[in-house]
Amino acid sequence: MSEILVLVEQVDGEVKKVTLELLTLARRLGTPAAVWAGPGYTPEAKAKLAEYGAETIYVAGSEEITGYVVAPKAEMLAQLVGEKSPAAVLVAATAEGKEVAGRLAVKTDSGVITDAVGLGDGFVAEQSIFGGGVNVQAKVSRGIPIVAVRPNSTAPEAAAGAGAEEEVSVSLSDAAKSARVVERVKQEKGARPELTEAAIVVSGGRGVGSAENFSVIEGLADALGAAVGASRAATDAGWYPHQFQVGQTGKTVSPQLYIAAGISGAIQHRAGMQTAKTIVAINKDPEAPIFELADYGVVGDLHQVVPQLTEEVDKRK
Ligand code: FAD
Questions:
Q1: Where in this chain does the record put each Electron transfer flavoprotein alpha/beta-subunit N-terminal domain (predicted)?
Q2: Is residue 101 included in any domain, yes or no?
Q3: DSSP reduced 3-state for 303
Q4: 266 lines ligand 1 (CB under 6 A)
Q5: Fewer CB atoms < 10 Å away: N or C end of the chain?
Q6: For the whole prediction, is pTM greater than 0.90?
Q7: ipTM over 0.90
Q8: Are residues 53 and 167 in the same domain?
């Protein structure tokens, strides 16, 4: 079976869950091969990638790969595609992943599918388009399929692969070195899961009312082991940091459960969360558009409903 290259997403050498999901998808369609970009490759990372089915791990460990912005990863992948002729390339549909996918598609004269929420036989992808308003079946008809898959689209399944390592040396063009990374600021890794990878997300909107009141949202999130999100109205008001904004101009999330409290359900917010498996809306306006989308709706004041919900969840632990 042909190889399917999976670009590894990692933070400080720790393989992110989305990579395990991509390996799981790759195994269903061919032979998964992980591609490690940049320094930080460890025996633990190798073990993790092999545990989820990587038969080969291509390690492009040069500092240069991550020393410049995005372009080196696309160039390294293009080189690997030229050498290995894989059946497909899978990346995570993160901001960087999508840029890598686009650049790689140009370099390899291939088609690209972004925001895939499923991938089946013949690399037919289920793709979320128009800001998440419509799902279509899409297939690449030119070159090799390059597919950017949203985190949480597939449950990762362990299945041992050989994990055979192969070093990749890359000679980067000057063009790939045109934007250099001058500083990395480490984001404090709180106790909560990362927003785009969380299985449960609890988001608050303008209805929360103030920065202090976000403790109500955080309380429920912590009871559920969830990430906290926010609407743009809440982030623009300075009630919650912008990096937690969900929506068209924020993060795209695809959790198992999304709880929207005090959020009206504007199209730009929906764009970032409507592929969630189950949506619960808490809003005091029964006419709020979020209820059209919600699987479960509670009409009520979130300041009463959310603390009660938190208490109930805590009782059942
Ligand atoms: P509102 O629309 O004001 O809704 C607040 C809701 O809270 C209401 O439904 C109200 O009934 C309810 N409420 C009030 N008090 C309570 C209470 N005590 N208990 C329960 N419910 C209560 N928005 C995003 O979220 N993400 C984006 O990425 C984004 N990108 C955008 C990009 C562009 C180009 C544009 C033009 C807009 C974008 N927006 C985005 C903004 C979007 O259009 C909405 O303005 C925004 O989502 C509204 O946020 P909200 O639902 O919190 O506020």
A1: 4-185
A2: yes
A3: helix
A4: yes
A5: C
A6: no
A7: yes
A8: yes
Assigned domain for 187 exists: no
Residue 263 alpha carbon to ligand 1 centre in Å: 5
Residue 198 burial (C-beta neighbours within 10 Å; 0-12, 13-18, 19+): buried
- Are residues 173 and 205 both part of a single domain? no
Task: Calculate how far, in angstroms, residue 253's C-alpha sits from the geometric centre of ligand 1.
Answer: 17
- What is the position in ligand 1's atom list of the atom closest to the CA of 246? 26
- Positive or negative, the CA dihedral 246, 248, 249, 253 is positive
Kindly report, residue by residue over 159-194, the tens digit of the pLDDT: 999 999 999 999 899 999 999 999 988 766 678 998
In this structure, is residue 260 part of a structural domain?
Answer: yes
Domain count across the chain: 2
- HEC assignment per residue over the chain: CCEEEEECCEECCEECHHHHHHHHHHHHHCEEEEEEECCCCCHHHHHHHHHCCCCEEEEECCHHHHHECCHHHHHHHHHHHHHHCCCEEEEECCHHHHHHHHHHHHHHCCCEEEEEEEEEHHHEEEEEEHHHCEEEEECCCCCCCEEEECCCCCCCCCCCCCCEEEECCCCCCCHHHCCECCCCCCCCCCCCCCHHHCCEEEEECHHHCCCCCHHHHHHHHHHHCCEEEECHHHHHCCCCCHHHEECCCCECCCCCEEEEECCCCCHHHHCCCCCCCEEEEEECCCCCCHHHHCCEEEECCHHHHHHHHHHHHHHCC
Single out the residue of 269, 41, 66, 23 nearest to residue 159, CA to CA: 23
